[in-house]
Sequence to fold (169 residues):
Amino acid sequence: MANEVYTRTNQALFFARMAIESWAEAAESDAVNAISQARYHREHALFHLYRGVLAVTHEVADRYRWPLMDARTVEQVLTVPVAERFPGPELAELTELAQAGDSWLGRLLSGWQQLQLPPTPEQSKLQDTGLIASSAVRAAREWTLEDAREAHATLTERLGCYREGMLEW
Fold:
């Protein structure tokens, strides 16, 4: 395979698509280990989608010859100060999406951050649901299969637009 920046992006999106397909199969499975398989593929898809976003930022940085190729996390690049320092439509759009928690990228980054947290024991449901304290506790939003599908489709679409805009005619 060519040692080009875009190959990493293509690989990440390919592996993310495969992980999402496997996640959907595991979610529909009646196997004994179906829950474990679904969790594995969920984390696998999240990893490759996160890696895909990072690869897209590297691809954009390479195109504009910005010194962002050493960034190891998406959070290092998709901040307002970085977007102001390196003005470009692609980086500005991704930064805006990252800052919006309800966007596909905001949900992806939130899911990634939850994945990085140490495991916590699940709390059992209280028998008395009338307690104020039990209704005040909110669980973090879970990264879902629909989120993964949306993130993959949107990232693939945005990447196509970015690459088309980067072509020299």
About this structure: Confidence is low (pLDDT under 50) at residues 134-138.
